[in-house]
Amino acid sequence: MQYRGLALALACACFLTGPVCAQGKLPGVFKNFKITRALRARWFNKVRFQVNNRLLTVPARSQAANALALRLTSPLLRTSVLEPAKPRPLSPAPKNIRQAVFTLQHSPQTRGKGSAFAVNINGKIWGVTAKHVLNDIGREPYIELFDENGKPFYTQITTLKEGHLRGADIAIFKIPPQLGKYIAPLEADETLPSPRNPAQSAGFSHGNFAWFNKIDVLFSSTHRILARYQDFPVLNGYCGSPLLVNGKAVGVFVGIVGNTNTQRAAWRALLDHKPINDFNQIVPMQWVRRLAEQVETPGQSVGTLVRVLGRPITHLTPDEAVLQIVQFRNGRVFKQIPACPFMDYLHLERFFDIEANDKIRVVIQRNGQPGTRPTELWYDLDISTGTLAGPADSHSMR
Q1: Which of 99, 100, 133, 208 lies in the 20 to 30 Å Cα band around 126?
Q2: In order of start, what are the domains of the chain with their CATH numbers?
């Protein structure tokens, strides 16, 4: 019986993946098992890309593959009729959104591209992308736009300010004035989106314009927004694109954290075990404004306040990032976890079993000047007395 079941499973697998014309050649119970191309297509979601305002459909593996597998084998058990799948409607991107996003590349001849967009901050137009995109294409890339006849042309730009790769993974640049008639900048909104807010996004995957008309916001903090992009998977080149709520830019897409890593992450409890595959990371819009302020008023920009257990620790600037948090008990390291930009530092009790005499150390890394190593700053919070020691660099604390 064991081998008979294995043989039946192998036969089903070969039949499902084999050519349609092979249906009539199988004996016995398989004669009533009608597999058509349409039915086979039900194993895949319909994924749509928008290329120059044209919708293209490509296959992507369904998240409900296991459930569909059970339904596909139902003719072996009963004579039920499967209704054809109804595709999800996908509306085209609004014209002003399409004119706000563009690609960055090393030179007009190169193929590797990243996404970027234009945004209005305090009356000035800035170009925004992800910092790690510049690590791939250089600090003086070309932006690709299209003239009135739809012909592409390229303009070189220079990056003005960059954030920390492990924190505000973003960079800004000035939009040349002569490009104003080809670009429609977005308005910035620093309001953090909630799961109740309908969100969208637009950018470029492999150089093709892509429009997400439904995004689920999972978690928002001043350091990171986590989201799930529903309509199709994010591909290479999408980093640097905007997250949109009511047509306004609320953040910058900077990458994906795979499900394998998130299952082991110490901050996983923040999401209350939501059943998702990957996390899409977005840097909130306030960090873009802070970068712009560092360019406009050097030395006067104020960072975002970091609180630990309700106690103010320091103001975090865009070129700084929290690296790790260490718990000391009886003078020894009791627990340490690597920090993530979307950790809720205000409620560390969700990550640590804190006692009255413990000490908490927050390790912050600051970008160095070009050609120099980053600096680490340590802040120690004594739980029993509420006193804060620091900042001190890593050498003086050893």
Answers
A1: 208
A2: 2-76 (no CATH), 91-301 (2.40.10.120), 303-393 (no CATH)
